[in-house]
Amino acid sequence: MKTWLPELLIAVVLVLTAVFAQAQQAAKVPQIGYLNTHIRRSTSSPSDWPRRLREPFLEGLLELGYVDGQNIIINSRIGEDGQFRELAAELVRLKMDVIVAQPPAIRAAMSATTTIPIVTIFRGDPVLSGFVASLERPGGNVTGIGGLTMELGGKWLELIKETIPSAKQVAVFWNRRAEEAFPLWRSVDSTARALGVNIQWLEAGPGSGLERSPGFLDKKLRLAAWRQADAFIVLGGIANTAMEYIAEFGLRNRIPGIFWTTDLDMERGGLMAYGANRFEQSRRAAYFVDKILKGAKPAELPVELPKSFEFVINLKAAKEIGITIPPRVLAWADRVIK
Question: In order of start, what are the domains of the chain with their CATH numbers?
Answer without folding.
Answer: 30-148+277-309 (3.40.50.2300), 152-259 (3.40.50.2300)
